[in-house]
Every structure is written in C-alpha cells, then in structure tokens.
Amino acid sequence: MAKLHHISAFNTILYILTLTNLCQSQSCPCGYSVGNSVFTEAMETDFTQVQSLNSIIGDWQVQDWRSNASADANIPYNRVTQYANVIAGNSQGLQMMVRTASDDSIGCSEIRTARNDIKFGSFRINMKTTPINGTCAAFFWYQDDAHEIDVEILSRELTTGLDGTPGPVANLVIHSPESQAAGFDASKTNSFMKDTMDWNPTKDFHEYRVDWLADGVQFYTDNSKVKQMTNNVPENPGRVFINHWSNGSPGWSGGPPKEDATMWVRYTRLYFNSSDPKLVQSAEKRCSAARSKGSKNLVCDIGGGSNNGGGNNGGGNTSGGNSNNGGGTGSNGGNSSSVFVPSSPVLPTNSSGSSSSWADLPDGSDSDKKGAASPQLGGNVGALLALSFLCIVSVHFI
Ligand SMILES: *[C@@H]1O[C@H](CO)[C@@H](O)[C@H](O)[C@H]1NC(C)=O
Ligand SMILES: *[C@@H]1O[C@H](CO)[C@@H](O)[C@H](O)[C@H]1NC(C)=O
Ligand SMILES: *[C@@H]1O[C@H](CO)[C@@H](O)[C@H](O)[C@H]1NC(C)=O
Ligand SMILES: *[C@@H]1O[C@H](CO)[C@@H](O)[C@H](O)[C@H]1NC(C)=O
Ligand SMILES: *[C@@H]1O[C@H](CO)[C@@H](O)[C@H](O)[C@H]1NC(C)=O
Ligand SMILES: *[C@@H]1O[C@H](CO)[C@@H](O)[C@H](O)[C@H]1NC(C)=O
Question: Segment Disordered: which positions (predicted)?
C-alpha cells in the first residue's frame, strides 16, 4: 500500500513536471524580441506538416473571390481566387497555384490571417517561387489598398541573375495615400524599391521578412537587412496575406502563365502586437505573472538579423517548424540566442467550435481587391484555455 502510494505520488510529480515543462516550452510569456523591439503575439505555421487545410483554419483563411478584367486598366483577364488552388499535404510545404488561362479567367490562390488586429510586427515567410513566366508571388501585410506593405516577386522579371549577376529582384512596396493618389502606382512614390537577390528564388527556399515598426519598415532576405523605408509607414492594424496571382496585366503580373505555376511556402513566422486592448491586457498579465514567479526566459529572442549583407541562413536552421532558434539568428550575426522559441504553432489550431477572441473583431476596411472574409473561423480559445488551465494547475501544485 505504502509502495503503491509512493509510485502514484512519483507519477503525479512526473506528470506535473511534464506539464510544467510543456507550459514553459509553449510560451515566451513576455513576448518575442527583435533588436530593441518586443512583440507579444506569435503565430508560427510549419506548412510541411500541414496535411489538410482544415488544420490551419483558425489561424488562416483560404480565400475565394474574383476581380474582373478591365480594358480601361489594361487588365485582360479575370482574376479568380479559388480554394482549390491552395493545396496542403505536400512535404515541401503549401502549394499555391496560378492556373493557365481558361477562357478569360485565371485561377489564383490566396490565404490570409484570421486575425485582423496585427499592428507592428516581424513577418517571415520561407518560400520558393515559380519559374513560369507571368505570375506575382506576394507576401504582405494589408489594412486597405492605401495601407499595405508588400514583398512581391514577379516571374516575368527573372530574366537575369539565374546563373550570375545582377540577380533577380524582389519588389518592396508600401502602399499609402500617396500611392493611392498616383493610381496605386507605388513606383511614383518613394516607397517602392527593388532588391537584387543573390540567388534564384525559384531554385531554393529562402526567407523573406518584413519588420514593421512605428518609425520604419525594414526588409530582410535570409536574415540580412536589404532595404528600409521610413516614409508612409502604416499605423493601424491589419492582416498578413500570401497570394500567387495573375491577371495578364503587362504592367505587373504579366502572363497568363503557359503552364500551371506553383509557389511553395515552407513556413510563416509572424511575431506582432495586437491592437485589441483585451489582448494587450492579457499579455501584460501573462508577463507579470511569469515575472513574479521568477521564471527564466521571459522574452524569446527571435533574432535581429544582420545588415552586413553576409548573412545566409546561418546557424538558425530554417527548415521547418522544429527549429528552436526560429532561424532568426544567422551565424554571422554574433548574437545567436539559446532562448527557446516555440515550434509551430504557438496557438493550438482547429480546436472545437468556440470562437477565438479576435474573430469577433470588426472586419475592418477590406476592399473587394483582397476579398471577403472566408466563412470558416476556427476557434483557438478552447484548446488555449485547456492548456492555460493545465499550466495554472501545475503551477498551483508546485
Ligand atoms: C508591443 O507591445 C508591448 C506591450 O504593450 C510594448 O511594450 C511594445 O513596445 C510594443 N512593441 C512595439 C514594437 O510597438
Ligand atoms: C478541423 O475542424 C474541421 C471542422 O470543424 C473538422 O472537420 C476537421 O476534421 C478538423 N481537422 C483537424 C485536423 O482537426
Ligand atoms: C464580374 O463578372 C461576373 C461574371 O461575368 C459578374 O457576374 C459580376 O457581376 C462582375 N463583377 C463586377 C464587379 O463587375
Ligand atoms: C516573360 O514574358 C514577357 C512577355 O513575353 C517577356 O517580356 C519577359 O522577358 C519574359 N520573362 C522571362 C523571365 O522570360
Ligand atoms: C536542419 O535540421 C534538420 C533536422 O534536425 C536536419 O535534417 C537538416 O539537415 C538541417 N538543415 C540544415 C540546413 O542544417
Ligand atoms: C549583439 O548584441 C549586443 C547587445 O545587444 C550589441 O551591442 C551588439 O552590437 C550585437 N552584435 C551584433 C553582431 O549584432
């Protein structure tokens, strides 16, 4: 009897220790730091592990909308964004398609974050773009057409650098009231830059990153800072999008592509602040509770990157979501961190039907250009509550 009691006490302690470890390893209670900036929220998705789109609904919404051809705007094809063109279940990552033209339409793909409360952040995507001429591969933050930060790779521009220099370009853009006044032609503003890449973006996966702060937007490729913009910096919340599209416009996407074209997304790592006062408050509580408990690793360093142009993927193994360093700390950065960054996703996805707190936020001012809200909004709150409950219970016991 005594022995049995002993064993079960031992098991209980083991159980509690495991839970405690789980809770600590799942959280960076005071947020995520990049240089001097700290963000309280994180959403990491390892698309190589996503077997079905259902499992990312809640974090992401798969879009379904159309934008018609317009002779006036020199847009020859309808751009038709369809669920069927976003394909999960491949170990390379998420497959985002642009189809060959069918009649006067081109099938395109788009996903966006369910959350529309994203205000300042470090947004990272690891992707491989298509070599098929005539598409735009885009990773962007978006409030509305006049407040948008983009990284866009146009396959029609990949005419150089495929086997030497000068390299192919990534278009780096802030859309602003100024670009709106110029007919959404950001090249007529000072918030449009072309970064020449040292690689062929269609051959291998690379990380493209936007750090958006109140005083400027910095662009990184593979952890090296390549450009910065301090004008037209947005200051209101929005969402993060990924899309792959063509409408045949000679001025931008080109195309239509002659074959079905694939953009591969290996992971996204989004670290950001929320504009929702309730979430700001709960982040503060989470942090001060951990602080008063004397927890270590309150803030996780997600890597500041370098700006000497020498950084490649470095020490931060960026292959997939299991890297503890988040891939953010290039070997030449000198500040590689041993702080644990949770593997994907930070928030449990696709738990039972309860709605997440941000799902109730107003939908903001999305224009039809970026489509309507997807009908599905999974809930994270159930699983999050369960996890917090376990954490609270284990902490209480200890
Ligand atoms: C994000 O929010 C935290 C907590 O409110 C704040 O301390 C921090 O400065 C914010 N970060 C940025 C980049 O604004
Ligand atoms: C996600 O939720 C949907 C609908 O609630 C369900 O049909 C699906 O099986 C779930 N997927 C996973 C991976 O749990
Ligand atoms: C776009 O074209 C479709 C099909 O012809 C039509 O039903 C729809 O009303 C058009 N939308 C707009 C905004 O013109
Ligand atoms: C793509 O096609 C356009 C139009 O034919 C052409 O001008 C451009 O050079 C092509 N780009 C590449 C990378 O072949
Ligand atoms: C990254 O880590 C994985 C798993 O540990 C390993 O298989 C892979 O070779 C590593 N990649 C690089 C580039 O180091
Ligand atoms: C590393 O961090 C320290 C302190 O934050 C800073 O002074 C130093 O410049 C950083 N080194 C590099 C290579 O970024």
Answer: 307-374
